[in-house]
Amino acid sequence: MSEDLLPIGRFARLCRLSVKQLRHYDELGLLAPAWVDPDSGYRYYRAAQARDAMSIGLLRSLDVPLAAIGQVLAGEDPAGALGEVRDRMEADLARRRRVLATLDRVLAEGLPQVAVTVRREPARRVRVERDAATPSSIPEATSRCVVRVLAGGVPMGPLIGLFPLDLAEEFVVGVATEDPSGPEILPGGTFATATHVGPYDRIDLTGHGLLAWCGERGHTPAGPVREVYLTVPGDTPPEHLVTELMIRLEDQ
């Protein structure tokens, strides 16, 4: 055994890590010991490994996932790996800010009560653009759909967002526009509708009120939830945006 090897306990103190952390990093393939005693299984490290060990500790303190840390240590586009982590954190922070804003509104105004109307809607021929989303990336995915819909020509009417009733970890959102030659049919039927006035990030409050109305009356809602955008964001202040929410009533 080389004399420059440090036992795991001493190396842990040198790097301000715990023995348990070092063992875990070894099991994950992030930081293998320089030598392992074949008889006792005891791990030994070299002082030259301290920088990598402390880099792992620093990145973990910044909530960087272990997979991204592995890319950084391996030199596999470290800037790109950390940039992706930062982008995800920024998106999560934006989502939390939206949640806080919604909670502030509930605190100020109470749980949402919305005016609901029921009406019949015909089936419509449409063209639809879809994109994959997660609960935190709905705005970005919807925006990508809008861009692609508008790139296909001037809409004949308001854009219609299509969202699943139940949001899993991953799902598909869509944006439709009426088109007589479109390849898809948006089903008609009986719909419960409510009007949301205000920013898009508060639509969930109106949606909650609409679903609560359905539940109180024993109606079974059928997805997708439709958001009919009646105003143009670029021309309308966020507080004055008007969106109609529509939920098809399966039992009607």
TrEMBL record:
It comes from the Bacteria. SUPFAM superfamilies: Probable bacterial effector-binding domain (SSF55136), Putative DNA-binding domain (SSF46955). The keyword Calcium does not apply. CDD domains: HTH_BmrR. Keywords: DNA-binding. GO terms for molecular function: DNA binding; DNA-binding transcription factor activity. This is DNA-binding transcriptional MerR regulator. It comes from Thermomonospora cellulosilytica.
